[in-house]
Amino acid sequence: MFTQLRLFVAALAVGIFLTACVDVQTVVHVKPDGSGVVEETVLMKKEMVAMMKSMAAGMGGGAPAPLLDEAKLQESAAGMGSGVTLLDAEPITTETGEGYRARFAFADINQLRLDQNPGGRAPDAGDTTDGPAAADKEEPVTFLFQAGDEPLLVIRPPREEATEQSPKEEDSGDAPAGLDDPGAQMAMMMMSQFFDGLRVAVYVVPEGEIIETNATHREGSRITLMEMDFGKLLKDPERFQAFVQQEPDSLEEAKSLMKDLPGVKIDLNPEVQIRFRGN
Asked: Cystine design at 80: which of 84, 119, 189, 229 (Cβ 3.0–4.6 Å)?
């Protein structure tokens, strides 16, 4: 079983009360000298913003934490690695959502630790209770950069700690509940409603011409490490259920399972390598 595949399924349960209805897009722009900028865009559905304000008012008249919190973004910069600083941040509003766009500068991508878990991006409904900390479930992507006329960027996905595991457990004889089970149908319907609007995406964009790469998903100079639209995924409950019940025994089998999964792009390579030439 592969780390990225397990993290994908586990993401459904990570920061559930903080990340519903939140669209988080992270783009890492890399210059030929190994420096660059991380651009993070976070949008929350306007219905969720209104609900949080209502909840905060009902808890004593306090206001929910602001969507754009520069102090929190400064903390995020410090957690991204040595030499990472917050460049700027601005509030943004679309027809359907509210949020912010922030840019973080890094001097050396070798020092960058990118947490792909969306937990903690959304504010708490109020300041009377503490939500689960994003740091409790870090899933950092790390990088290795080799300078030169044609720099090589190696992207390393999250690593699991080594644990002793037995082979697959024997079947207990109890088949998992199918979608014809009323309880399973209700649970899937609730999940579909709750996760509608939750989208997480991580891209890497080298500044220059990509000469060669083993990346699975590439559009021009943009490499997709992860793109998960949970609303689309849960609208096909039969395929989703079949997916989470699988335990692929090979990389090719895992890729085959995910190839046509709606709303999902994820690179399962142990490392993504990009060799490029600066403009």
From this structure: 84
